[in-house]
Q: What sequence folds into this?
């Protein structure tokens, strides 16, 4: 068997560990989830949102220092609870998937 095929046979596919949505507002950031070990986390702002959503890596994330979630984002991170989200207006949703 060619060497490349041997390597591919040894790789195990990732599995979806958890999926969910979180509703956020403009006053206080929220942790994406309480605890969920991961290899990667995917985030996208819900298509029905009227405002903007931002994310960061601690509870001090705000609309002025967070990364705007204007397109789907994939992050290599070991635990989804390290991600915080906040919005420009109340009632905005973030959809997420954790890959392990």
A:
């Amino acid at each position: 068997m060619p060497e490349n095929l041997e390597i591919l046979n040894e790789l195990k596919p990732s599995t979806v560990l958890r999926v969910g949505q979180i509703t956020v507002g403009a006053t206080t950031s929220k942790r994406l989830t309480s605890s969920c070990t991961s290899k990667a986390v995917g985030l996208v702002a819900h298509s029905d949102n009227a405002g903007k959503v931002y994310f960061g890596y601690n509870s001090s994330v705000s609309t002025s220092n967070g990364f705007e979630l204007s397109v789907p984002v994939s992050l290599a991170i070991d635990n989804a609870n390290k991600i915080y989200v906040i919005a420009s207006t109340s009632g905005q949703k973030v959809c997420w998937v954790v890959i392990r």
User: Anything to note?
Assistant: Helices lie at 3-10. The radius of gyration is 16 Å. Confidence is low (pLDDT under 50) at residues 1-5.
